[in-house]
Amino acid sequence: MRKKLKVAVIGGGSSYTPELIEGFIKRYQEFPIDELYLVDIEAGREKLKTVGALAVRMIEKAGLPIELHMTFDRREAIKDAAFVTTQIRVGMLDARSRDEKIPLRYGLLGQETTGAGGFAKALRTIPVILDICKDIEEVSPHAFLLNFTNPAGIVTEAVTKYTKVKTIGLCNLPIGTKMLVAKMLGVDVSKVEIEMAGINHLNWTTKVWVEGIEKTGEVLDIISGVKGVSVKNIPDIEWEREFIQSVGMIPCSYLRYYYMKDKMLEKQLQDLETKGTRADEVKKVEEELFALYQDPFLNRKPPQLEKRGGAYYSEAAVNLMTSIYNNKKDIQIVNVKNNGILSCLPDDVSVEVNCVIDSEGATPLQLKTAALPPHIRGLLQVVKAYEELTVEAAVHGDYQAGMQALTIHPLIGSAELAKRVFSDILNGNKEFLPQFSRYKD
Amino acid sequence: MRKKLKVAVIGGGSSYTPELIEGFIKRYQEFPIDELYLVDIEAGREKLKTVGALAVRMIEKAGLPIELHMTFDRREAIKDAAFVTTQIRVGMLDARSRDEKIPLRYGLLGQETTGAGGFAKALRTIPVILDICKDIEEVSPHAFLLNFTNPAGIVTEAVTKYTKVKTIGLCNLPIGTKMLVAKMLGVDVSKVEIEMAGINHLNWTTKVWVEGIEKTGEVLDIISGVKGVSVKNIPDIEWEREFIQSVGMIPCSYLRYYYMKDKMLEKQLQDLETKGTRADEVKKVEEELFALYQDPFLNRKPPQLEKRGGAYYSEAAVNLMTSIYNNKKDIQIVNVKNNGILSCLPDDVSVEVNCVIDSEGATPLQLKTAALPPHIRGLLQVVKAYEELTVEAAVHGDYQAGMQALTIHPLIGSAELAKRVFSDILNGNKEFLPQFSRYKD
Amino acid sequence: MRKKLKVAVIGGGSSYTPELIEGFIKRYQEFPIDELYLVDIEAGREKLKTVGALAVRMIEKAGLPIELHMTFDRREAIKDAAFVTTQIRVGMLDARSRDEKIPLRYGLLGQETTGAGGFAKALRTIPVILDICKDIEEVSPHAFLLNFTNPAGIVTEAVTKYTKVKTIGLCNLPIGTKMLVAKMLGVDVSKVEIEMAGINHLNWTTKVWVEGIEKTGEVLDIISGVKGVSVKNIPDIEWEREFIQSVGMIPCSYLRYYYMKDKMLEKQLQDLETKGTRADEVKKVEEELFALYQDPFLNRKPPQLEKRGGAYYSEAAVNLMTSIYNNKKDIQIVNVKNNGILSCLPDDVSVEVNCVIDSEGATPLQLKTAALPPHIRGLLQVVKAYEELTVEAAVHGDYQAGMQALTIHPLIGSAELAKRVFSDILNGNKEFLPQFSRYKD
Amino acid sequence: MRKKLKVAVIGGGSSYTPELIEGFIKRYQEFPIDELYLVDIEAGREKLKTVGALAVRMIEKAGLPIELHMTFDRREAIKDAAFVTTQIRVGMLDARSRDEKIPLRYGLLGQETTGAGGFAKALRTIPVILDICKDIEEVSPHAFLLNFTNPAGIVTEAVTKYTKVKTIGLCNLPIGTKMLVAKMLGVDVSKVEIEMAGINHLNWTTKVWVEGIEKTGEVLDIISGVKGVSVKNIPDIEWEREFIQSVGMIPCSYLRYYYMKDKMLEKQLQDLETKGTRADEVKKVEEELFALYQDPFLNRKPPQLEKRGGAYYSEAAVNLMTSIYNNKKDIQIVNVKNNGILSCLPDDVSVEVNCVIDSEGATPLQLKTAALPPHIRGLLQVVKAYEELTVEAAVHGDYQAGMQALTIHPLIGSAELAKRVFSDILNGNKEFLPQFSRYKD
């Protein structure tokens, strides 16, 4: 008799959940969930209720025998689950808003996952994720933790360094890149393969193939000097042709923050004046979405959800679970422990690379290019060093590690600014940073 | 019969030469030079004549049997020399002035060896040094090339990567640090030992001992929040206590450019208004020096030379030659091929580390601290990647490598600025950058 | 219009060819060969004629539009081929016989691919393969060289170190192991996956799964103390239970030569008395086969071919070509350049590991076990060092490298024996070792 | 006021002690011992008494203010000692005799430190040394443990892996090699320097210099084909010229066991017939020595001690202590944690290499030859893997690790023999191997 297939979604009250439900419904034949647990914290009771009710309607409409449970008891949800996914936001959108605004005070980029904003998010998020891991270790040690919570690479690294939980970090950027490349080249996405190398939100598409024929050069030509080649939540400033040719690979959208720092900052400051931070925008979208979700006749994912960002999120997540469940051995780009795949980075850090997915998880593939060129390597190494320090700061409440993390980050690069920003982060997040309680003023 | 000991000084007409002569005179017993060749280019004929005449007077006064030769024939000077030293300045102080000013146009630090200024200097200098190496390979293949020409680390790397010449890169910073530490701790310098790790002008004193007892913590305490702990040519802005403790090691003076970028830039902009660039200052000092040198009664190093910067330069140079010549096996901090000593950097790059000096040159010692912490490692790796790209740009006239070198440098960090600065550098140095002739507009 | 698919088989007159033809016929739908060239040397004219005629009858019977060419002009065969395969035997079975007998004179194991015998074969084979590579570089630089010629790992390493040819080394051991494991576990082979680590003919099956569930322990239990778990050409001496448990992985059959050296030697010496060497046996089988092949009514692979050894050889070969041709991205275990996948071995050596096969060739997968345990690592390292030295000896006629290769080989382990065996090898193979002409007595 | 300088000698009743005392007396000016503790176990009471009394007479004769203490209380001896040295022999010469005889039963080399004999010795010794380390950690955490107890490399590795004690492993082979080389070249030893690379009792002198001029080739020529170039306790079989040239470095005497396995075995078997094992010889020498030591008028090291083997032992030991005590920064060849100095070996193993000795201990120097050639590397790697497994077996009583250690050792190389030898070792050493109590039959 087949063992029951149980999935637990931590942060189940998220506005993203309907997308995930849609994914589960579409792929039910391959991935026959028996029990789906949506868990949330008390503060999210209303949202969970709303989203859960919509999920029930969606499943009913599909006529599938998926049992849906809503709960505030995390251990109950995790117990015997095959997969645990996290889509939590510690401190909710207010915290994100602060993460985006604090750096801007000092003329630094304010972004949810990158730079000082991502640092703050990591400090808040990692302790909660490690708590979840403790539960998994105790009540479902064989479960896979599929982590979508940003900063996904840093969080994955904390989990692999400090717990025994089998984990894979997942981002929608790789699948989004593949979709974008397919569109650019005018071919169906099923014919496109890409190789990515780097770490979460700091990676390069090193090669592109269409039906096995390399097309990297064509894509580099296409993306030079045009708009429309960025992901939703990153300003769409075009790459300069000469520069992109000197990179020789396709930088991910987040690399605009590094390569076009000044223009990106300018854009953020303008936006702050005119429409507020991205958090402010998202808040509005979320309100609208929850208003829609409450409609008792709604029984499908509303199209407005697409404005939310996180496109292909559900696809990436369900793909991953399906491939593990079915021992598929297809290739997906996910965040895992390095173990020598990127030889320029330490063995115990997280990297985002092409992996074969099977019943044991994700096994990285050797890069087709034997060694990353110095310009990729250098940037990767310094940002990874920042990430390692951030993990230490988040796990141990290590002020000195945090200070150095911010100081060496290429988007900060100054001990003075680091100190001020860090101080504001600690003060603005008091309730979410118990590990730093002794440093608050 | 002892083989004649011959030394060739390339750039012999430099204002530094009297200091070197003084060093040779003081250490004659240990390092009995038979023939000293001062070589220069035609454009430096007058200076060579002046400096050479002073050198002759100094040697005569000392009553030593050193034969002094002045020549414009480099190969004649190098032939059968045991040591070749370089103290050249391609493009002279005018070029330095440009190196310091161009970056400031774009709000970037303008410095002779660091950032965009150091990049420009490397592009001008490396082809000339490789030419010298060709001569050495042909007419004195067993000679040691002791390179003092900045950026010394990058130049040394170019030589080890592209020639067969035995080379050691030398800087006065390590010996200066030791002197400074002795002064701080109020002990004689002979009792002080330090361990340094890093690359030229980007290194950290990882440990300090007095008579074998570690005193690193004491020094960290002393340097926090005080002035007077920087080398001559770097603004003396004090380290913030909390920050320096989080570094945990003693940063070299040049690290102020990285850790206190904004304050350092502000200072440079002020100075530019009030007293011009450092090149402008040095020009005046040089004029004064050469006026003094012309005095036919002067037969010693004039004390004014000390204002010139480059303190301990002669000491460092003569120490190194003496230890090689006498197979001394003492420890000096010099620039050599890495070969795994700093495991976070590639094997074939140059590093500045503690070495045992003997008749075969410099052999690095393993670091007492097994692995550099992430905050040191990250910064070191990204700057080294910049250096590797700079070597490629300088040797091959590779525009794309140069573009990427500047883009990832922590003091630039922007593709746009990189492009503009690079363009100004190429235009401002046309006559000195034949390797880039096809890129000039 | 589809480009013509051309395959060149070097050593086409081999008795194995009918098996390969059968494979091509079976997989024609997926791998539609247009032109198949069988090439051989003049000395093999008769065999080529016989085998070629049989191949023609087989293709005709299958009714497929494959053009078969027989030629002695290697470059004509290689020109524009998509795949070149090699199944050559330099010096033919007489040489193999010598390889097996010479070591036995000194109480050393005599084996075609392992120890001194494999060393001799490598010396004879590598120069010929490098010649073939020169042709490929000139007339078909995009062709894949699929090398089946033993010692396959050493030959592959010589090709990757000394040519630009895209090459993959192939052995039937991995596929044979999978078949054997399936049989042991009583499941269909399609449900079995294995992970192998090591180098050709010295590898361990680190993990076994059936439908994604790990079964390594079960297999270890099964193979302890029983017969029937060795490949055809290796004496079937059973593994001792306690020992196999301490290995913790499944050793390949060739590891019997290392782990049970004395028993294996004893067996060889007995066999030598009673039935001669394996070469002698094979000679008889070959004679029988060619007699059969000459039957003008034979139009299929005769079942007697299976006695020949090399089971699954055709399957392995055609699988590999089909996966490359169709960009399949399935996993096969082949010999490729290491590049860090086995971190205990140098980057530039060949290893035999799980790879994803696609249109660009074979990309290794990270091992599921992060690091090989010391008992695996140590043996692997010393035998790989032997292989590296053998490549140098074979390519450069380097006597000293050869001497050291034999001395450190675990099956020789003595400078005295190494010297004697090497001398006999050089004397016995004079005509096939031009690179050692100056060492012969 | 100077802190008292205390030294504890564990195994103080050894026949070697007078040599050590002589060394302390000779070097008193540089190394002014205040308190010298000779410690032994109850079973060695008589020997300790005899040796201690001789030591007192020697010190009195020298007229030095060294306080000599004899004790059976190890912690008292260790407390506040600056240096702890070990010269213990667990199981005494009877155990050594077994170690030498057991392997010979199976046609394997029987040697105290190498192969199965060294393995047995490691199993007996490591638990005792780790016990001593526990004492050091508790009562003298800053003490240096200078370990002379064989197998010195394996013991040092166990200490660095499983304790926090600062340790250096010491052997008289490097100093003996230097002496021998000086004699061969007819120069004073003070003019000779050597570079050694490898692990204890398996190393190669990679380079030899006289007054800074390389003489490696000369030494290779000299040692070819002559007798008289082995250490005392290893049969003096001459190196074959062609072979030694192909090594390209000077193998240590113990490498005869690897390179001339058969001849060495033959010699051992002969000796066993005629004069017994080396342990038997040593027993007689020891008896003679202790008879001499009892002479109440003897107040110097008797010359007969030189027959004992272990020449230069005292010199090596006192050199090391003196250099640490005086922060000398001279170069000595000792056993330390690898940490990347031999890049072909793991970081956490022990290696025997050139080190700078100062107040903090031993800091390895980078090899002058960047990478060890494959024939050195391969042998080193497999024997190191054996050593790593032996440490695990010794510390944890891990039978499987022990089984594999013996199997892969180049002087055993067979699972069958490994099993039998291991069984005999366990049975013959029951009382000394508590960690294996569950495996004894």
TrEMBL record, chains A, B, C, D:
<dbReference type="InterPro" id="IPR015955">
    <property type="entry name" value="Lactate_DH/Glyco_Ohase_4_C"/>
</dbReference>
<protein>
    <submittedName>
        <fullName>6-phospho-beta-glucosidase</fullName>
    </submittedName>
</protein>
<dbReference type="InterPro" id="IPR001088">
    <property type="entry name" value="Glyco_hydro_4"/>
</dbReference>
<comment type="similarity">
    <text>Belongs to the glycosyl hydrolase 4 family.</text>
</comment>
<dbReference type="Pfam" id="PF02056">
    <property type="entry name" value="Glyco_hydro_4"/>
</dbReference>
<dbReference type="Pfam" id="PF11975">
    <property type="entry name" value="Glyco_hydro_4C"/>
</dbReference>
<dbReference type="InterPro" id="IPR036291">
    <property type="entry name" value="NAD(P)-bd_dom_sf"/>
</dbReference>
<dbReference type="InterPro" id="IPR019802">
    <property type="entry name" value="GlycHydrolase_4_CS"/>
</dbReference>
<keyword id="KW-0479">Metal-binding</keyword>
<keyword id="KW-0378">Hydrolase</keyword>
<keyword id="KW-0520">NAD</keyword>
<feature type="domain" description="Glycosyl hydrolase family 4 C-terminal">
    <location>
        <begin position="196"/>
        <end position="412"/>
    </location>
</feature>
<keyword id="KW-0464">Manganese</keyword>
<keyword id="KW-0326">Glycosidase</keyword>
<dbReference type="InterPro" id="IPR022616">
    <property type="entry name" value="Glyco_hydro_4_C"/>
</dbReference>
